[in-house]
Amino acid sequence: MTEIFTGSFTQQEPIPEAGIDAALEVMRHGRLHRYNTIPGEVSQAAHLEQEFAAQTGARYALAVASGGYAMATALRAVGVGPGDRVLSNAFTLAPVPGAIASVGATPVFVGVTEALTIDLDDLAAKADRARVLLLSHMRGHICDMDRLMEICTAAGITVIEDCAHTMGAAWGGVPSGRHGVIGCYSMQTYKHVNSGEGGFLITDDADLAARAIMLSGSYMLYERHLAAPPPEAFETVKYVTPNISGRMDNLRAALLRPQIADLPQQVARWNARYREIEAGLRDTPGLRLIDRPEAEQFVGSSIQFLLLDWSEAAIADVLARCAARGVELKWFGGAEPVAFTSRYDSWRYAPSEPMPASDRVLRGIIDMRVPLTFSLEDCALIARIIRAEVGAVWQAL
């Protein structure tokens, strides 16, 4: 009998009861705006920032409306503006070059390796083209951050990390987002904590934190933050920093606080599912898994593999055969963007020179979400289906 998977690749776990209770309390008193507090009250948003700063070891944290807004705010805070160039990954999602374009800057794309991380040799070759790198830890793959920081420090490049897929991950024991001057995170539904939309920005730099808080729309209420620099850090920036409102509200913060507290346990659950799928796919003919370096402490909320040098027709056949058995795979190699799988040559507002080596890798990337609603038995079944269908197409090649 042919096995079929009947689960959903987009179904999340419920919000924890503690988050629901806290959100109901916010709705009952009606003070959803983060600065709408009564005497002696600390807002849910301020508590959330303090708790995330403590979890990551950062001095300062800011909760905002989305991960994309966090990245654009970070770029503005470090001084990127119209006409500037910003280095960034060729393999990423559209909000990353979108954040660069939103401040009037131009992306300079850096290649991707077969490990699905930024090509550090290509980065070194392009280091003289920009003074800022917006580094995307795409799909949770972290490059050699020690070497990356050596390259950027030597070239005077400021590093901003996009950690939308690496909240809870680390390199060499250092939490993702703590190597660069600013780390940015997403709390969109398909990320590691879920408030529908939402973002974080963390930094140890008091001036950058003050600028980011003013940019987010604090007016002169910055003293109501628990994870902000002291008031004197705002004395100059408050007169010259525009208000580009993108605050997080207390309702979303209430939903997030218990999820942030539970994140280490959730990471362990994701990685158990990832390893189950990985084990089931290992040594599949024609399929290449992505080996994870020992220094990388990753979060397996999605899994990728390569069908390297396969034809477009053969890859399409694999995707269709898996879909017919209930397994939803995404492909980054298509000529046209589909759902979230656009790539650097799809973004015509950010033209790039050809990158043949990266194009070869992109044409082979297959991507799959691993929701926590999957059981380990589900993961084993999914791996069997992918293995069988890849094998069937491979044999026919």
Class of secondary structure makeup: alpha/beta
**Fraction in helix:** 25-40%
Q: Which second-level CATH architecture of the largest domain applies?
A: 3-Layer(aba) Sandwich
- Chain-averaged pLDDT: 97
Q: What's the structural domain tally?
A: 2
Q: Judging from the principal axes of the Cα atoms, what is the shape?
A: globular
Number of helical regions: 12
CATH class descriptor name of the largest domain? Alpha Beta
According to CATH, the fold-level topology of the largest domain is Aspartate Aminotransferase, domain 2
Straight-line distance between termini: 25 Å
Short description:
The chain has helices at residues 17-29, 44-56, 67-77, 95-102, 120-125, 145-155, 206-216, 237-240, 250-281, 312-324, 356-364, 376-396, and strands at residues 60-64, 85-89, 106-110, 132-136, 158-162, 170-171, 174-175, 182-186, 199-203, 288-289, 296-297, 302-306, 330-331, 365-369. It is of the alpha/beta class and 397 residues long.
Describe the structure.
The structure is a single chain. The chain is an alpha/beta fold and 397 residues long. The chain has two domains: 17-257, Aspartate Aminotransferase, domain 2; 263-396, Aspartate Aminotransferase, domain 1 (Alpha-Beta Complex). Helices cover 38% and strands 14% of the residues. The strands form three sheets. The protein has a seven-stranded mixed sheet, with helices on both faces. Strands 10-12-14-13 form a four-stranded antiparallel sheet. Strand 2, helix 4 (95-102) and strand 3 form a beta-alpha-beta unit. Helix 2 (44-56) packs parallel to helix 9 (250-281) and helix 3 (67-77) crosses helix 4 (95-102).
